[in-house]
């Protein structure tokens, strides 16, 4: 097996990588991947690529990407450049995809947070899944990170009180969240007040521009599907 060189990905801010052998994935996940994306079993590995912190956004802006979905375009272009001539299939971002949170849990990146965004000790909630790709590579698989949720040690839980919709009291209430975000005076149209109040790894918090970009996308989805 080969040890992958992640330098190109890291320099582009795609600084989270996890390599899985498809045949060693949980049975249900493996079957789903084979049935939906790889019926001929052409690929041996699945690679999960993400970003933590601010570096990816900075690199993307410096590259001058102009597209409807600039992060997706940038992430795919860098990933394919990194893969070189390896046979591969991008399965995320795409119209149908594998379960990102399930893969994140396998990698040891993902713990649930009260405000329904993944969180971990290193990056807080300021990380995201960017690309899932199937390859015929023979890389050394990545051992999972062994971490605990930072929320378990957060006694004050300021995110709960900060949510202006009151959507985190007694568990996440999606309908309250959506209803509040749609109001004309909502403080969460281009951000999540609860999320930015979270103290975990706050030094990695995205720029206001990146936060607004992310939440404007979800706001458009709300306006489209929750009339």
Which helices and strands appear, and what pairs or packs with what?
Layout: H1 7-11, E1 16-21, H2 27-37, E2 45-52, H3 55-63, H4 70-83, E3 88-92, H5 100-107, E4 127-135, H6 158-162, H7 174-181, H8 193-197, H9 208-225
Antiparallel strand pairs: 1-2, 2-4, 3-4
What does this protein look like?
- With about 230 residues, the protein is an alpha+beta fold.
- The protein folds into two domains: about 5-135, no CATH class; about 150-225, no CATH class.
- Helices cover about 35% and strands about 10% of the residues.
- A four-stranded antiparallel β-sheet has the order 1-2-4-3, sandwiched between helices.
- The protein is globular.
- The model has no long low-confidence stretch (mean pLDDT about 95).
Please give the share of residues in helix: 25-40%
Strand order of the largest sheet: 1-2-4-3
How many DSSP-defined strands?
4
- What does the average pLDDT come to? 95
Note the beta-strand portion: 5-15%
Low-pLDDT segments, ≥5 res: none
Biggest sheet statistics:
4 strands, antiparallel
* Overall tally of structural domains: 2
